[in-house]
Amino acid sequence: MKEVLQESNKNISSYDKLIVTLYKCLKNSYGFDDFFLEFQQVFNCQCGGIFAISVEPLSFLFSWSFGYPVGFEQWFVENDMIKTDEGLKRYMSGEKNKFQSYVAGSGEETFLPLVSAQTGAWAKQMGIVDSAGVLIGDNENFKLVFLINRHKSVGPFSHEDVDKLDTIAAHLEQVFQLYLTLYQSKQNAFAQHSALDLTNRPMAVINLMVEVEYVNQSAKQFLAQKGISGIAQGCRLNLYNKEQQKNINDLLLTVGSFARQNNPQSQSVLLRINAHKILFKVSPSMSENGKLINLIIEFFELSDNLILPLDLIIATLECTTGEAIIAKLLSEGLTVKEIASTQEISETDLKTSIKNILIKNNLNNQVDMISILVRLAF
Predict the structure, then answer these.
(1) Cis peptide before 57, with omega less than 30 degrees from 0?
(2) Element (H, E) at 125
(3) Measuring CA to CA, which residue among 100, 87, 103, 111 is closest to residue 169?
């Protein structure tokens, strides 16, 4: 009885270690080699792996494998073996997260009588007597199959083996789906960051935890020149002025909230930092299926150095010459009071002109109008 308990505890310990190793693979950058090594020892497998297969047309996409001879995957692809591999086809059409074995329950000692002559010839050469597998992912574009083979020195899979395999199927599905999601996210992020580096506009990426995910080179130079700290890559966005920080947080929250409600739109806020008038324009970055990925901040300084021809402003805002002059002065950082003084008009009339521009262009406020003009100048 004691020996039975010790063996049971040993099996539980091996199983727990296997699951822990599986989830650890999400953190490393070199795939699933550690998990496959543990798996081979726990389930006495000769070779196997995860195979991604497109259904229409039927083709091999990619895999993580172990135990196969060098060059096997290349041979598999070049000979279009996906169209004749009985095991992969069987497991692709099987019940999700439910392992199958050729031999278990068949009354046979090897799967050779149960497979085609072509598969049998390959299995004999490799010394394989049984195969087991499971469908762990059924995505829109492809299916994920986990397939393993047993050598004749160990023998075929038993019912008990298949039951044990079933206990890890859900973990396999979860980890590999997470891995693919993370990988795609990293690829998208890399493409996005590379694109930002190609522009001369100061821009930063803010993730959904309000952390600065990336700052392009133009933004690093811009922020350094203006003496603006608190927007550093890998840290939470943190402006030292509490009121300004609240304005930025509110802006990020608003843009993110609209995007999640399938109403993605850009919004802006104008802040005076270290004697500089800085426009923060926040835009949502959306995935192909309409999910919010992150937020993009563009930084602009308002000054009289902006080159904005009046005819360009008139064409863009569909406004009069007088309204275009007002819009230009606002984009240069002047206040309503300062513009009223220099143009010798009342603040009331000035505000009416600004309101007319906003109504014509369906804008919420003058900061949104300024952001349009500032972008024209860059």
Answers:
(1) yes
(2) helix 117-126
(3) 100
Residues 356, 295: Cα–Cα separation, whole Å: 30
Percent of the chain with pLDDT over 90: 25
Cα separation of 32 and 144, whole Å? 15
Give the amino acid at 353. S
Q: Residue 236 carries which DSSP code?
A: B
Cβ-based burial of 362 (10 A; exposed 0-12, middle 13-18, buried ≥19): exposed
Structure tokens that stand for 41 in this block: 């020892």
- Secondary structure class of 55 (helix, strand, coil): coil
Residue with tokens 């574009």: 141
Q: How confident is the model at residue 331 (pLDDT cuts 50, 70, 90)?
A: confident
Nearest C-alpha neighbor of 214 from the set 236, 193, 185 = 193
Q: Rounded distance, CA 106 to CA 112, Å? A: 12
Query: Cα(133)–Cα(50) distance, rounded to whole angstroms?
Result: 10
| Partners of residue 215 on adjacent β-strands | 204
Question: What is the Cα–Cα distance from 348 to 329, expressed in whole angstroms?
Answer: 17
Q: Which residues is 219 bridged to in the sheet?
A: none
CB 344 within 8 A of CB 350: no
Helix (H, G, I), strand (E, B) or coil at 206: strand
pLDDT digits (tens, 9 = 90+) for 5-63: 344 444 557 778 888 888 888 776 567 888 999 999 999 999 999 988 888 788 888 88
Q: What are the CB-based long-range contacts (under 8 Å, 24+) for 355-362?
A: 356/319, 356/323, 357/317, 357/319, 357/323, 357/326, 357/327, 360/317, 360/318, 360/319, 361/317, 361/318
How many Å apart are CA 232 and CA 240, to the nearest integer? Answer: 13
Q: Which domains does the chain have, with CATH numbers?
A: 2-186 (3.30.450.80), 199-301 (3.30.450.20), 310-376 (1.10.10.10)
SS3 73: helix
Are the C-beta atoms of 77 and 53 separated by less than 8 Å?
no
Q: What is the DSSP letter of 205?
A: E
C-alpha–C-alpha distance, residues 353 and 206, integer Å: 35
First to last CA, the chain: 80
Q: What is the pLDDT of residues 342-376, one digit of tens each?
A: 888 898 999 999 999 999 988 888 888 888 887 77
